[in-house]
Design a protein that fits this description.
2 domains, three-stranded antiparallel sheet, 5 helices, 38% helix, binds zinc ion
Length: 140
């Protein structure tokens, strides 16, 4: 079993258990995965990125503007920065985050997908990661 960190199109964060990655994909395409908060079946695996540097980054991310437009703008800014400066590593995320942490790989920003277990064990090893916000233009 594998547990994924998921986001719906309204950025509700939740998690789900799946037998494997393929089961997840087939349930997703059959619209069988629903957000427990709003019932949306427009669901994605949360993209994760290591939390780099200072606490102030974290604060910016957590301070959510009230206004929806400003919120989307702020999320877009975070995504843009990550996508410009980081390598997409897909499901090799945990592996690569670890290699960078232990200086076995080039020190750089990365983003990608990981299971909740991996996210948890990364954080136990002192590698803090955060979900990337999902943007309206991701919803196709
Ligand atoms: Zn939702």
């Amino acid at each position: 079993m594998i547990r994924f960190n998921l986001l719906c199109n309204l950025n509700h964060e939740f998690d789900g258990w799946f037998r494997d990655n393929e089961t997840f994909d087939s349930q997703l395409s059959a619209s069988e995965i629903q957000c427990p908060m709003c019932g949306s079946t427009n669901v994605h695996k949360a993209l994760m990125t290591p939390l780099l540097g200072k606490k102030s980054n974290q604060k910016t991310l957590q301070k959510k503007p009230d206004n929806q437009k400003a919120l989307v703008k702020a999320m877009r800014e975070i995504r843009r920065k990550v996508e410009e400066n980081a390598d997409y590593v897909g499901d090799k995320f945990a592996e690569e985050a670890r290699r960078i942490h232990y200086k076995e790989s080039e020190d750089r920003g990365i983003y990608g997908e990981t299971s909740l277990e991996e996210a948890k064990s990364l954080s136990e090893e002192g590698i803090e990661i955060q979900p990337l916000p999902l943007l309206p233009e991701d919803q196709n």
